[in-house]
Task: structure prediction
Amino acid sequence: MSNAVCVPSSKSSLITDSDDDNPPQRTESVSEVLIRLGADLEEIERVKQIYPMKISRHFLGLIREKDDPIWRQSVPSIEELQDVYNISDPLSEARDTKVPGLVHRYPDRVLLIISSKCAMYCRFCTRKRSVGKIEQTPMEQIFRGIDYIREHPEIRDVLLSGGDPLLRSNKELDVILKALHSIPHVEVIRIGTRVPSVMPERITPKLVNVLKKYHPLYMNIHFEHPGEIDQGCEHALRLLADAGIPLGSQSVLLRGINDDPEVMKELMQKLVRNRVRPYYIYLCDLVKGVEHFRTSLQSGFDVIHHLQGYTSGLCVPHLIIDSPGGGKIPILPPNYLLAADEEKAVISNYKGEVYEYPNPRI
Result:
């Protein structure tokens, strides 16, 4: 695949058509937008040689200024080439890959990669090593993964990932979901996607009509900043929720983007308002090329502590570290449980008020 900037077509536009008295204006190219906002295209080109760049027209239209939270998620930075600390596959997915594109790490569930394409290449991606490097995941490979699932009755939960699964065509998704749904021991299918945020026009009634045939079907959507949730995104979420698809969110704690507790609270509240249940906030994976995005563990504690008590429990996700090769580990701020022995626990609430909770006396 070429490293050229790729912008999918979209109903969203940076420049709208004018009225009948004036001819329509030409829509700016990606390069023109980035130059206007102050980008160094030579620097971007250097990064693209290693880590490809792709920005959807919709997400590009959300950028307000250079280095704002939307820019930092989507526009390459020279800092990506200065990371000497991390590695390309920190989660050891290769170790747990049983057949190409299928990761079986946990006892009862697997991750099945059904797409190598994304609507946008996020600069902090866990699979930064591979996205944008091949044209598309072959259907033959996907069906080898489905055969593996069929042969392993302990698998009850299948997570479809990528790339982005929703970059497959409606027909391809129908074929994949039908095959998985026909396996008796598969109880739940999940889709991990960022399409409602970065390319909401992909969520159409035709797509939703395909998805809702295969309940119980869940969808976890990546959101990093409240500025992503505009009218187009809200419309996409409404179509999915109205189809009975339970929606959850996953966010990565990113320096300079959402590590401000107030920003994260606004994001969680906007998600709940749009019927998306906050699920996970991840500490940034130790991926080569993303060190400049990483935050301290204390930053994660500060965010969770600020959410707990200052907004409803519906808005409070789990804080997670995806450990290298060991799976997801929930992390709680340490200042809630102050002490514990056989008689009692000493606990503190979000205000710092201290209470004792006695253990059973019999």
Q: What stands out?
A: Residues 334-362 form one domain. The chain is about 25% helix and 20% strand.
